[in-house]
Amino acid sequence: MKEISRRKFLKGALAGSAAAAAAGILGGQVFAESTTEGTTEGSGSGQYIPGTYTATAQGIGTVTVTMTFDADKITDVVLDVSGETPSIGQAAADDLKAALLNAQNSDIEAVSGATITSTAVMQAAENCIAQAKGQAAMTTVTADTGSDDDWLGQEPQITDADITDTWDTDIVIVGAGNGGMCAAAYAASKGLKFRIIEQNPVVQDTRHWFGAIDSAAAKKAGSAPSNRKLLLSEISRYASGKCNQRVVKTWINESAAMYDFVAGICENDPYNFTCEFTSGDEAKWPDTDENTKYYFSEQEHTYITSEREKDMARNEVFQDYIEKLGYSIDFNTSLVKLEKNEEGRVTGIIAKKASGEIIRINAAQGVLLACGGYPGNPYMMEQLDPLGTSVTTACSYSPSDQGYGIRAAVWAGASLDKEAAPMLFDRGLVAPGVDSGYVDNEASFGGKAFPGTVRQYNPGTQPFLKVNRHGQRFANESSPYNDIVYAAANQPGHVYCQIMDSNYMDDIKRFHTIGCSAQSRNIPGYVDQQLQDHGPEGDGLVKVADTIEDLADQLGFEGEDKERFLKTVERYNELYDKQDDEDFGKMQQRLSAIRKAPFYGCWLGASLLTTEQGIAINEKTQALDADRNPIEGLYVTGDMSGSFFANNYPCLMPGVACGRTLTFAIKAVKQMAGIDTAEEEMSLGGESTEGSAEAATEGATE
Fold first, then answer.
1. DSSP state at residue 625
2. 435 exposed, middle or buried (CB, 10 Å; 0-12, 13-18, 19+)?
3. Residue 653: CA atoms inside 13 Å, Cβ hemisphere, count?
C-alpha cells in the first residue's frame, strides 16, 4: 500500500470537492457489531485466543472483516467489500488486507480516496482483535438510521451500565472538519481544556475558499471598505428574509478577526503560506447591461496557491498546530447523543469508539457541534428538500455527512430551520436519457444514490446555450449556479443540455464567471482536460461533432425535438448577431455564437455539495429551542448551523459559507470560555470591534 501520513491522506480523498465540512459523528451506520463465527482452541500462552473471528461495520455498504489468529499473531485476513464503490472501496481491498497483516493491528493508514471503506475496515478489524483477546463482548448501541417516512428516528437509549469510560473536560468539539478544526486551533491557542472527536480516521476535507469582510488582506490589497449595510440586505434578500440578521451581522463584523487568527497560524513559521485575496473586478459579476447587475461586496481568501500549501491543507495545518501545543484529536470516535441535566443545560455527550467503548464526555463549559449537513442521507434529503433532491443528478458531498449531528441536536430539543438550503452546482454531468433524482443503489446508505458518475463538471456553469429535451431554450443561462437547475425542475427529466462551439475558451474568458467557476477561465488547459476526460476518448459523456445535426443525434434528439433543437441553435445565433437577447434577457457579454466546428454538447443537472439547512442559532452561536430560547451549553457551527441561509446558497458570494463556519467556530469557543469581548450591539459602520490583527493572533503566535 502507498505510504501516506494521515494528514497527507486528504489530498487524495474527495478530490475536487469544496466539500464541506465533515461529520465526526455517529450516523448509526458506522457501528461495528461483533458476529464471532470461529471456534476457539484453548487460551494458549500468547496474546490471542487462536481462532477465526468476524465483525461488520458500515462503509458505503456493509463491510465484513474475518481475521484468523494463532496465539501470537494475525495469520489471515478476508475482506468482503462487495457493497463498496467498485472503483474506490473495492479497489482498496488488497491494500487494506496487506496493511492489516503487516501492521498486526487495526491502526493502519487509510487508502487514498477510500476513507469511508478504510474506516469501516479498521473498525471491524478492531472488533475482531478485541474478540481474539478474549475481551468482554462490546456493548452494541442500536442507532435508528431513520426511514423513508421518518428522517428523525429515535434517540439511542444509553444506561450508566453501558458506559465504559468517562472523560472530564471544559469544552467538547464534535467534528474535525472546517469548523471543528478552527475551533480546536483557537481553543489550543488560548490554552483551554477541550476534547475534539471525529468519527473518521483523519481530519476532514478542507473547504479552502473562505469569505471575510474588510480583513487585513483586503486592506493590504487596497480594497475599499465593504458596504456592510447593503451586504446584510443582499443576504437577507437572497434568503427571502428567512435568515436571522443578527446572526449574519456576526459574520460581517467578526470575520476580519477570524482571518487575523487563521493568518496568524497559516502565514507564519513553520507553515509560511501566502493568502490569495480576491476582490474588485476579478470577483465582480459583469454589469455590462443595467438590468443584469448583482451586488457582490464580499471578499475571498484562499491558501492553495503554492506547492507548499497544496501539500498541507488548512485543516491539516490546524491539526499539526494543536498537536504541537500538546492536544490531540480522538479519531474513530462518534457522537451517539447529547446529555442534559434537569435544568435543560447540555452537560456533555455520549460517544462511541470504533473498538466499541461507550464514553461519557462531560463538558463543564459547553459542547460545539460541527458535524456537517445531511447530503449523504436520502431519508433527510427526500423529506426535508424534495425540490433540491428532484433536480440533482450527481454528488460532490462527503458520504459521512448524514445529518446525525442535526438529529442529535433535535433530540435534545433544538429547532431545525424550516426552509431547505442546498448547495447545488450546475455541474451534474450525465448521459443522454438520464433523469435527475435518486436511483436504487444497494451499496449506498439508504439504498439510494444519484445517477451521475462525475462529481462536478466545472464548465457546466458557463452560460452557454442550454435547452431541454424538446430542444427548446427555457431560461436565461447567465445566473447563479443553482438558478438554472431550479429552472430545470419545470422541464422533462429535470435535466438540460449545454451547447458550445470550438471558440469555447474565448467565450469563457469573456463570460467572466466568478467563484469556483472562474477556474475554467483562470487555469490554463483546464477546460481542455475536462473535455478530454469526458469526451469520446474519455467516459463519453460530452458529445463532439463536426455538424450540429450530428451533435443533435448524439445527444438523443429525434423527430420534432431535433427540428426544434436545430431551430433553437439558429435563433441563438441570430440573437448573438443582434447582441440582444430578446427571448430571455441575457446580458450581451454572455451571448455566444454556435457556428465553428467542432461542436460540443452534454446533459446536466445539479451536483449536490452540501446542505445549509441547520439548527437555529442566535448571534452567540447558541442552539435555539422551538420557542427561540437558547439551549444552555449547546453551540453549533458549519453546515449544520442554521439561521443564515434559506432557499439556496448565495453563489454570488463565494466562500461565505466557510467564512461563516470559521467565524462562528471561534465565536462559540469565546462564548464557552467566557472570553468574548465583542460588544452586545455591533454596528455596521465598517470596523470590527474585535481589535487588531495583532490582538486577535496573540494566542496563535505565542
1. B
2. middle
3. 24
Q: Using alpha carbons only, give the angle 360, 190, 349 rounded to the nearest 5 degrees.
A: 15
User: Rounded distance, CA 24 to CA 431, Å?
Assistant: 35
Instruction: Grade residue 173 by pLDDT with cuts at 50, 70 and 90.
Output: very high
Q: CA geometry: angle at 339 spanning 336 and 341, to 5°?
A: 170
379-389 pLDDT, tens digit each? 999 999 999 99
Model pTM?
0.82
**Residue 178 corresponds to which cell in the numbers above?**
472546517
Closest CA to 607 of 485, 488, 519, 523: 485
Closest CA relative to residue 696, chosen from 257, 268, 215 = 257
Find the helix or strand (DSSP H, E) in which 569 lies: helix 559-578
Helix runs in 270-341, H state only: 307-311, 314-324
Contacts of 58 (CB under 8 A, 6+ apart): 27, 28, 29, 30, 31, 120, 445
Strand partners, 301: 210, 277
Residue 417 is given by DSSP the state: P
Tell the burial category of 294 from Cβ atoms under 10 Å away from its Cβ (0-12, 13-18, 19+). Answer: middle
C-beta of residue 661 within 8 angstroms of C-beta of residue 255 = no
Asked if 371 contacts 440 with a C-beta cutoff of 8 angstroms, the reply is: no
Q: What is the mean pLDDT of residues 142-158?
A: 88
Spatial distance between the Cα atoms of 512 and 529, rounded to a whole number of angstroms: 19
Cβ 96 vs Cβ 79: under 8 Å: yes
